[in-house]
Amino acid sequence: MTDTIVLGAGIIGVCIAIHLQRRGRNVLLVDRREPGRETSYGNAGIIQREGVRPRAFPRDLGELLRIGAKRGLDTRYDLAALPGYVPALASYWRNSAPARYRRIVAEYAPLIAHSISEHADLISAAGAEDLIDKRGFLLLFRSAARRDAAFADADADARDYGIGRARLDADEVARMEPALRVPLVGALHWTAPWTVRDPGALVDAYVGLFRQLGGTVALGNADSLGAAGSGWTVRTSDGSASAAEVVLALGPWAGEATRRLGYRFPLFIKRGYCREYQYMPGVTLNRPVLDIEMGYLLAPMHRGVRLTTGAEFAHQNAPKNEAQVEGSEAVARQLIELGARLDLEPWLGARPCTPDMKPIIGRAPNHRNLWLAFGHAHHGLTLGAVTGRLLAEQMTGETPFVDPRPFSAQRFVA
Ligand SMILES: Cc1cc2nc3c(=O)[nH]c(=O)nc-3n(C[C@H](O)[C@H](O)[C@H](O)COP(=O)(O)OP(=O)(O)OC[C@H]3O[C@@H](n4cnc5c(N)ncnc54)[C@H](O)[C@@H]3O)c2cc1C
User: Fold this and answer.
1) Is residue 142 domain-shared with residue 251, that is, in the same domain?
2) 3-class secondary structure, 192
3) pTM strictly above 0.85
4) Partner of 243 for a Cys bridge, out of 2, 101, 115, 134, CB 3.0 to 4.6 A?
């Protein structure tokens, strides 16, 4: 007998399923494909303990003009898709104004504060330590102005949130990452984050833990979700499943499923690409490096060096536009010697975003026994384990370990 169906087996859904199963619920985890093969697969793999400030909308005119002129690699857009983005981006812009943004950071930081400790718990229970590196990551600087501004912000984050960091000069960067060959003026070393050497494999390990705890996984489509008495049913490859409660953890597809249930959450996506390259003999990257002024990231993975791009504003189902990943690759090949591409096509994912930069985690406003967990934007891997615990505590009536009120879906319901 199933108590709870979790729809969506990305990092968010899998962590929720584990935490519910641990609390004695009989959980069925349903996805239309194998777990962890969408957004939770091709990301940069950083558990961003330093990420107390969610990614804000740029407020600086020069920065906006640069993006508008498509001069950088970090942000791209498809003009045809922009009208659909306008309402959400207008709200995102308002929420990024200094006073509102400060409030949002104060609400968001407590979630991030637990990101490492909550993953550590699941990593250890799942026996996934071989996927984890604890050497942090580097923000590389090509100009003194960007470096000094980032150093000052990092000092503030160290003071306000106790986040570990080190300022590195050019020689120190060269000692830590000898394979980098472009002149740099220094780097910021975020020392607290952990990095995952294969994010898809981490989801697989967590699914293994969930099964060990007695949980069940099935193929099925959220489109088939229907009310049945006071509960819900879903069609799965193993037949029709029913349960008292359902959790929607559908990442960038949450908009479709919640619209069918009558909600109009102002969700939007930022697409992002990843591509992997063979390691060159004798060329080692010890930790991820964010080439912040150029707008892409390189991360050492088990399989090869992974390049991930910045944001692309486009229709979710629009064909891939390889310009951003091609441009990033050209710059990355100057920074470090990369081997051959490991796949013909780049991977494409979509960061699931909300205009106030906070995920939705909690009860659905207008339905009994329906729970929501999506909108984790740039930090879904980071916040997977935290979200799993926070939602499971709310569902089982425990006292939540973090105040859940800032993440309530109610804030988007008139
Ligand atoms: C390029 C890139 C780099 C990133 N780097 C990082 C990083 O370093 N650190 C970090 O913390 N975050 C990072 N992120 C963000 C992070 O990857 C996402 O926030 C996170 O993966 C979202 O997880 P999710 O479980 O909500 O969504 P998903 O992983 O997309 O899971 C949703 C699941 O729902 C399923 N589904 C969808 N529709 C249906 C349906 N109708 N029926 C059944 N199942 C359905 C899908 O198959 C999928 O498995 C990055 C994102 C990108 C794109």
Assistant:
1) no
2) coil
3) yes
4) 2
